[in-house]
Amino acid sequence: MVDDELSMREFLEIFLARQGYAVETAANGEEAIARLEAGGVDLVICDMMMPKLGGMDVLRKARELDPSVLFVMVTAFASTESAVEAMKLGAYDYITKPFQVDVIKLTVAKALEKSRLIRDNRRLQKEIESRYIFENLVGQSAQMQQVFEVIRRVAGTRSNILISGESGTGKELVARAIHFNSPRREKPFVTVNCGAIPADLLESELFGHKKGAFTGAYADKRGLFETANLGTIFLDEIGEAPLSIQVKLLRAIQDKTFTPVGGLAEILVDVRVLAASNRDLEAEVKAGRFREDLFYRLNVIQVVIPPLRDRREDIGLLLRHFITRYSQEIGKEVRAVEPEAEAALKNYDWPGNVRELENTVERAISLAHSDTLSLADLPEKVRCRQPVSPSLPSLSRIRPGQNLESLLAEAERKLIEEALAQSGGVKKKAAELLGVSFRSFRYRLEKLGMDGGKDDED
Fold it and tell me: Sheet of 161-164: strands edge to edge?
């Protein structure tokens, strides 16, 4: 509380202290600025008219020292124009003299509530950023160190990036790390899973629609590209996008403009595009299922994440990382892993990659009876057997009439049959076991002439 009138300072100090606030006072602008330089102030209530340094001077200095400190100006009724000027300079509010104590009470409560929200938002932003800084991307293997180096070099650029890797390898985590270490970190990061949204709704989700554009379009809707303006959009499982959508994506990426469904006017956006796929998009291009021009627009820089089975030296590090995280989240004091359990985890092939390991650790901690994870806490498939991998003949043993495509089709058929067997014939569960979308799984069944199983549980 800053005022050159002793009676006003004492009155407000007593009144606000009774409301439960910690109140400090200053008799002039110089004292106020000295206190602000020490830090730890949430709100300043300052008289406009004071000798030497007035309220406007204190406001300017306060904004310079800490823009998050809220400022309420107290002014005589005749000087409301100056109060409006103070608002333009960043003051939260102003109060005219003479005032009622209820006005002060309400203004202070609202200002401090806003201050709390600002602090909470800042804390959450720091937590998000700390989660996605490079140092928290776990991996000590040479393959992952190479991935980290590529991310460090490209994060600050404007280039579009294609992130490739099997399902569960951490493609979205890499995308977030790129965004939160880029100049766009303060702007939106928008994720869209192209395989999870039905094809007939994907265009509307990406580009928005106008009221009446189709049945159920009761109001205008902003698309995700517009939501991500000035920030980053992450197109996960881009290989699942239908060709009709790929054409519109190409234009949005190439020209930075798009037209909402049912709209006439173009919308201009500045969006960095990160895309990811667990498919071989070059093979999809050759097969005619993915546009070549879109592929080259997305694949300016490629980041390839290796599967977990190819970097087993990272399993122990990831294991301890997830134990620390989920022990805190679940509220259990799990600190160690029995040697037999760790050996089983390291020997397992992890078809679901890092995501499967994370889920396994979370489950194990939930079931654990002590502060050490044992073999009994692990799923049976990890404890008792390795996942069955299709055995392919060596080049020297390929029979006449066989070729690479037929061998791969045979291996794919065996894996699908095993997944259907493990899931009790439920296709959605089988797709999850294989780490592919339900739509992709059905496509593979049709391609191989397989039509067994049920779409969902009875």
Answer: 189-193, 232-236, 272-277, 161-164, 301-304
